[in-house]
Amino acid sequence: MRIYISADMEGITGLVDADDVQPGGRDYERGRRAMTDDVNAAVRGALRAGATEIVVNDAHGPMRNLVSDTLHPAARLIRGKPKTMGMVEGLTPAFDAMVCVGYHSRAGAHGVLSHSFMGHEIEDMWLDERPTGEIGLVHASAAAMGVPVAVLAGDDAACQEATAWDPAIATVAVKYVRSRFAAELRPDAESRAAIEETVAAALATPRTGEPSASEDSTGERSTGEPSTGEPSTATLAVRWQSSAVAETLLGIPGVTQVDTRTVQTTGTPPDLFRQFGVWMRVATALTNQAPYC
């Protein structure tokens, strides 16, 4: 069994502030260790379920956050950037399941460190007119490759967002939102035990159409039906804070204007993810803005 783990940072156990997750922040080094501990818990769970190959993609910011010399030796690490596919770099149909660790809710949501990919510069995103963020776009890309998202760990808002896309995803709430930069934290040991147990249970139970168990925002277990899959093509729309970003992106073939700050394009979800990475690099070059403003 081949398992792919995508690791973000804002939804990691104990982290609540930009200083926890940004290089140079006063607690960033502690955040790196916490991120590695959460990922190691997921790796242990995957091994318990019978995984024979585990690939971990460092999917946050500089993508050099995980402490590689303390990462579980059973996992291979994809580290650094730029990556053509960003948060899903290295994901292929050859994987049996995907696990998302440290994920957060989309821009505008009431969630810990909520944003969509670029902090304040992206005001909103839609996938086939449905509000989306990182969770929705990652899920759609994985589904288009035939790889189910088996588990997602993050704050309770991220867990709710994930199961809204696919009720069959088993979730682990490692903290509970109080504000965008405050949360009620689960004890570290309890949180990591929950990640390990949930990953082990979810991967040991093939998704065959039966309801899947997941933790809701209260930490209780709930059930839901698996998704019926994604369309072969979809439309991605993004509203930027700056009209200059939207105007510049119109130079890319296939990108059309919705309004002065919103552009869209159509393609398969993996192709959309790849092109969206280019959009973000254009936006970064034009704005040079720090996130979380």
TrEMBL record:
Task: List where Polar residues composition bias occurs.
Answer: 224-233
Classification via SUPFAM superfamilies: Dipeptide transport protein
Q: What's one Pfam family the UniProt record gives for this protein?
A: Peptidase_M55
Q: Where is this region: Disordered?
A: 201-233
Protein's name according to its UniProt entry: Peptidase M55 D-aminopeptidase
State the organism named in the record: Catenulispora subtropica
